[in-house]
Design goal:
17% strand, 7-stranded mixed sheet, 217 residues, two-stranded antiparallel sheet, single chain, globular, alpha/beta, 9 strands
Length: 217
Amino acid sequence: MTTRTRKSTDKIPEPTLRRLPWYLSNAKLLREKGEKYVSSTQISKEINIDASQIAKDLSYVNIAGRTRVGYEIELLINVLEDFLGFTNIHKAYLFGVGSLGAALLRDSGLSHFGLKIVGAFDINPALVGTSINGIPIYHTDEFEERMKQDKVNIGVLTVPINIAQEITGKMVEGGIKAVWNFTPFRIRVPEHIVVQNTSLYAHLAVMFNRLNETLKK
């Protein structure tokens, strides 16, 4: 049985990390259809990524396929979920319970990928003391006290851009080690803090630009 054994000195490229969940989702769909094996060529046809790139990406998780058969789907799913950290639960706090923040609190699917939001923070008196999807909403001033109890490492940032840096500073000072930034503001953090920027507006700009180019043809 092939297991994941990657050297700690190996650093997986970010584009590869972004593609691995696509392979995982594809493998899960095939499992639902009763399939037992899948080749990089089959995955390539489904998600339009070159088969050689898929094979190279999967080499980082050190799972070997069988000649003319491919990868065992159940093993592929298990290895990818473990490699991506989806099998461990990472607790998070959310900052800013606006429309986007509230939507993330309602997204129960996040827990299937290893992220559990255990609390949210806002200054709106109409929200403080309530809960969404069973997740309590606290006043932002309670953050440091809550951290002593929950020991959370991840902060989800969905506040207005004019306070994005201020709230980021409070998160870092309070002990947050990683920030999932949903704002279009480029936050500044110390080198040891992990930041993942996921701006919906930035992706919209890319889509609109490409659409305009297409319409010009």
